[in-house]
Specification:
heterodimer; A: 485 residues; alpha/beta; Amidase signature (AS) enzymes; 11-stranded mixed sheet; globular; B: 481 residues; alpha+beta; 3 domains; 9-stranded mixed sheet; 3-stranded antiparallel sheet; 16 strands; 20% strand; elongated
């Protein structure tokens, strides 16, 4: 077994017993990155030097018995997390050379848990995209088939786990940006409840929807990482001051007697037959483990995509105003005055999709249009949330597909933004509802591409998601398949 | 000419709050530090930074709302006001729009025709922007620099109804509002440093017309004198415009203190669409009735209540009381004197007379002078018990002003003790009458004005130490003999 094949849970034991050193583990990953990332393009920045230093420090800690949950564990971060002293681009030209002066809370918590940061990961620019083709630094390629997309926006975060160029990673999920690439890359991705993980130090796309979560090789690792980053943060007013349960303690409790809802609207026309059949297979496995299934309805689902693309873009249009070329980031100044400086810097710095969303959002908030667009979208959001919360009053969890199809070909949807937006149809409602969901592998297409499913839980019921996902994972072998690189 | 028109004025006042730290981060709010030394990721608007509300700002807003008779909203929210400017790091200002913290208050002002109630539409919390410094660098004159020390400092914006009908009413409102925020301790009210900034919405309409005229918003007025000048100029400008057959256009105008005029800054077409929407980074502010009552109970005595007390309880003339309350420190000083046992009118006379004159001459505040309330009261007691005369007291006061020494010590060391012993004074009186027979005859023939001459002579003979009352009494008696 190669060093890069171990999970976090296995390595915790190996590192503590001294059978593996953090330094050799780190070197193994850096070597793996050097040998295969050229094909994948998951990394935007490899922090080799600081990673080695951190690994050596981890070995000293291990030798001294000062062991924390993630001591010596090599992880990578979506380039949306600001990292002190390490370039943070958000995959945008406007931040190409930006080096933040501080660490965000989730990052700080990983460091505090002893993790070793390998580098920063590719993504759709400012997290706007569903295929990772909107990066200013090139698309990420799917480790299972390099002609296919990884999904987005946390494409690098999913690809590095599948390609074993990191043990695990953090991503962010605003409309499915953790779950959808996790599904397309055959890894586990958790989108925690809004407020569960601090957003401090996460570059904002849509503040009322953005949420940080882990992408891992299996469910146990997901629980370990979630445990490390979850919890109240006084620096984020929207983080929730509620105790974080012990996710590992309930992991093995099984699904016997669990009532699982199947939302009718998620299984209709438009769902790829292979995805549909994979979900049916999963349902049989879970039923065999003692779960009960109930068909439920989420009647406002059809409004979710439109609602999302008004709210998210409205917030984004404001959140991205700070990239003005004045204090940091790209500045294009040809001496034509202030307005020209703004226009030229932003025109040169932002990519087409970012510009499209800034314009959409600006329009939705404009005088005379606010009520018809932004305000109406907020009302729709309330209805969509009520649908999900009401359904979860009747059942313990919902089971649904993550994406209507497996990963599509690179370039297949870039000419048609609307088609691209519709690929988020099953993930967006969870963000609008502010609740949690977990994506995990449940099969493969005939073409050998992974298929994912998601459990959707009540607010702050991440433990239930992990518990159900773990039971399913133990009963199946999808997570043991590896992309050949 | 302007008498054909009624003037309508509404005011928007920005009050900078004197909290220790900024409204959404922990940086200091100190004025006058080196540029950009009081900044952090939050107030610099760096990627990933998030605002966290300073609870002190909410408390100050509630205090200001209660002091201006507003209703405190049980729930209010922050909104983003979006516009680009180099002094605005995030590209939006966090303010309040649809649900402000205070609504529907008023202030009563005194006018020539009696008391008048002026409505306050709302008070909301917001963050200030930074400052731009133009062409001050070594590089070239066209460079501009941004100082973000002031960015994110807390402001209250107090918006009045268009209830004022003259510049004088506007000034009375502003002075009272300023006095209130200073009394509350929520702001230093310093106009020059920009802690109290005013924009005026001015329009005119023919008398009797119910609809408002088109208004101009005048910005950049930073003294009470300028406010009067700006409003009066604007009324004149609008009147002339209408008289000449033109129309007032809705616009923002900048006041120029040099010329005393206003000039157009941007028209309605160029007005920003601020695209306000609720700030998703902040949660709604919920304020319980209990909290409001708690703040209300802890409010200090406000200027008008003080005025009322000084007049009705302490028996001061309204004019004296008004001057005393104009500055909170002076009102506090006066209160301290009364508490220490001073007769209110006597204390007021000294504070408004000799003490104020000396303070003005020295250019210092009452809290910085050596004559503490205790010292002043000590002196007043020596006047009361006839140890010194009023005239001697002036000498004592000057010594006290210089040295901060107690009155009794000064009286002893200067030998200023007043002579009230009738025997000694009678000696002076008899001698003066004997020495001035011509004047005595004059007085006796009916020239009472000459009485002062005798008083002066006796005081001179006693080296100013004779008790004037006794002198008067004895002189009258002796001259009548």
């Amino acid at each position: 077994m190669s060093l890069i094949d171990y999970t976090i849970a296995q390595l915790q034991t190996q590192l503590r017993s001294g059978k593996i050193s953090a330094a050799e583990l780190c070197d193994a990953y850096l070597a793996r990155i050097a040998s295969v990332d050229g094909e994948i393009n998951a990394y935007l920045t490899v922090a080799a030097e600081s990673a080695r230093a951190a690994a050596l420090a981890a070995d000293r800690d291990l030798a001294g018995g000062h062991v924390r949950p993630l001591t010596g564990i090599p992880l990578a971060l979506k380039d949306i997390f600001v990292t002190k002293g390490i370039r943070t681009t958000c995959a945008s030209k406007i931040l190409t050379d930006y080096i933040p002066p501080y660490d965000g809370t989730a990052v700080q918590r990983l460091y505090d848990s002893g993790a070793v940061l390998l580098g920063k990961l590719n993504m759709d620019e400012f997290a706007m995209g569903s295929s990772n083709e909107n990066s200013a630094f090139g698309a990420v390629r799917n480790p299972w088939n390099r002609d296919y997309v990884t999904g987005g926006s946390s494409g690098g975060s999913a690809a590095c786990v599948a390609a074993r160029t990191a043990l695990a990673s953090l991503g962010t999920d605003t409309g499915g940006s953790i779950r959808q690439p996790a599904a397309h890359c055959g890894v586990v991705g958790l989108k925690p409840t809004y407020g569960r993980v601090s957003r401090y130090g996460v570059i904002a796309y849509a503040s009322s929807l953005d949420q940080v979560g882990p992408l891992t090789r299996d469910v146990r690792d997901c629980a370990i990482l979630a445990q490390a980053i979850a919890g109240y943060d006084p620096l984020d007013s929207t983080s929730v001051n509620a105790p974080v349960p012990d996710y590992l303690a309930s992991l093995e409790k099984g699904v016997k007697g669990l009532r699982i809802g199947l939302p009718r609207e998620y299984f209709g026309a438009g769902l790829d037959p292979e995805v549909k059949s994979a979900l049916e297979g999963a349902q049989r496995v879970l039923a065999g483990l003692g779960a009960e299934f109930v068909e439920i309805s989420l009647p406002h689902t059809e409004y979710a995509v439109a609602c999302y693309y008004l709210i998210a873009t409205a917030e984004a249009s404001s959140n991205l105003a700070r990239y003005d070329g004045i204090r940091f980031g790209l500045r294009v100044d040809e001496g034509e005055g202030l307005n020209a400086l703004y226009c030229r810097s932003r025109a040169a710095g932002f990519g087409a999709e970012v510009k499209r969303r800034i314009m959409l959002g600006t329009y939705a908030l404009s005088a005379g249009y606010y009520d018809a667009y932004y305000l109406k979208a907020q009302k729709a959001r309330t209805l969509i949330r009520q649908d999900i919360i009401a359904a979860l009053d009747q059942v313990d969890l919902l089971l649904a597909p993550v994406a209507p199809t497996p990963a599509f070909r690179l370039g297949e949807k870039t000419a048609d933004p609307l088609q691209m937006y519709l690929s988020d149809i099953f993930t967006i409602p969870v963000n609008l509802a502010g609740t949690c969901a977990l994506s995990l592998p449940c099969g493969f297409s005939a073409g050998g591409l992974p298929i994912g499913m998601q459990f959707i839980g009540r607010p702050f019921a991440e433990a239930s998601l992990l518990q159900a996902a773990y039971a399913y994972e133990q009963a199946t072998e999808w997570h043991q398949r590896q992309a050949i690189l | 000419m302007s008498s054909k028109y009624e003037v309508v004025i509404g005011l928007e006042v920005h009050v900078q709050l004197q909290t220790q730290t900024k409204i959404f981060c922990g940086c200091s709010t100190r004025f006058g530090s080196e540029p950009n030394t009081q900044t952090c990721p939050v107030c610099l608007g760096l990627p990933g930074a998030l605002p966290v509300l300073n609870e002190k700002v909410v408390e100050f807003a509630i205090m200001a709302g209660l002091a201006t008779n507003c209703t405190i909203a049980e729930r209010s929210i922050f909104a983003r006001k979006n516009y680009f400017y180099p002094d605005l790091p995030k590209g939006y200002q966090i303010s309040q729009f649809e649900e402000p913290i205070c609504v529907g208050g008023w202030l009563d002002i005194e006018t020539e025709t009696g008391s008048k109630r002026l409505g306050i539409t709302r008070i909301h919390m917001e963050e200030d922007a930074g400052k731009l410094l133009h062409g001050e660098g070594a590089a070239s004159g066209r460079d501009s620099y941004v100082d973000l020390n002031r960015a994110c400092t807390p402001l209250l914006e107090v918006v009045s109804e268009p209830d004022m009908r003259s510049a004088d009413e506007a000034i009375a409102y502003l002075k009272q509002l300023r006095q209130i925020v200073i009394y509350l301790g929520v702001s230093d009210g310093n106009l020059e440093e920009g802690s109290f900034r005013c924009d005026a919405n001015v329009s005119i309409r023919p008398w009797g017309q119910p609809e408002y005229g088109t208004r101009a918003e005048i910005k950049n007025i930073n003294s009470f004198r300028f406010i009067k000048q700006a409003i009066e100029y604007e009324v004149e400008r609008q009147s002339e415009l209408i008289e000449d057959g033109g129309r007032v256009v809705q616009e923002t105008r900048l006041y120029d203190a040099e010329s005393g005029t206003t000039r157009s800054m941007r028209g309605k077409e160029e007005a920003h669409d601020y695209r306000y929407f609720p700030d998703p980074d902040l949660v709604p502010i919920e304020i319980s009735r209990a909290r409001v009552e708690e703040v209300r109970a802890a409010l200090p005595e406000l200027p008008l209540a003080k005025l009322e007390r000084f007049v009705s309880e302490l028996g001061l003339p309204v004019r004296d009381a008004e001057i005393l309350i104009a500055e909170q420190e002076i009102a506090r000083y006066f209160d301290a004197c009364v508490v220490a046992g001073a007769q209110p009118k006597a204390a007021a006379n000294w504070i408004l007379g000799d003490l104020s004159r000396n303070l003005n001459n020295a250019g210092i505040s009452i809290t910085a002078c050596k004559v503490t309330p205790a010292l002043l009261v000590g002196m007043l007691q020596r006047i009361d018990d006839n140890t010194i005369s009023g005239k001697q007291a002036k000498v004592v006061f000057e010594k006290m002003w210089e040295s901060g020494t107690e009155a009794d010590t000064i009286i002893d060391s200067e030998g200023l003790r007043q002579v009230s012993d009738s025997g000694a004074i009678e000696g002076f009186v008899t001698a003066i009458i004997a020495a001035n027979p011509a004047q005595v005859a004059d007085y006796k023939s009916g020239n009472e004005k000459i009485f002062g001459f005798f008083v002066g002579q006796v005081m001179k003979a006693s080296k100013g130490q004779a008790n004037p009352a006794t002198v008067n009494e004895l002189l009258k008696k002796k001259l009548a003999e």
